[in-house]
Amino acid sequence: MKKIFGLSGKLLKEKNNKSETDGIIPKLQKQEKIMTIAIYTLIIITTISIALILFVLLTKN
Prior knowledge:
By secondary structure, this protein is an alpha+beta fold. It has a domain at 30-61. Helices cover 61% and strands 15% of the residues. It is built from one helix and two strands; from the N terminus they run ββα. It has one helix spanning 24-60, and strands at residues 2-5, 11-15. A hairpin with a 5-residue loop joins β1 and β2. It starts with a strand and ends with a helix. The mean pLDDT is 81. Keywords: Membrane, Transmembrane, Transmembrane helix.
């Protein structure tokens, strides 16, 4: 842990050796995976819906 002192010698704040941005990249990667799965799911659902609509329209005639 790193301690930061002011000119008067008072302790201003303590810093951990770990950077504040260390947790951001894994969090963003997790969100990216979730969004990718969501997009693929929407594409699959849309494709199936269009196929069903076309099937119903073609078999009606």
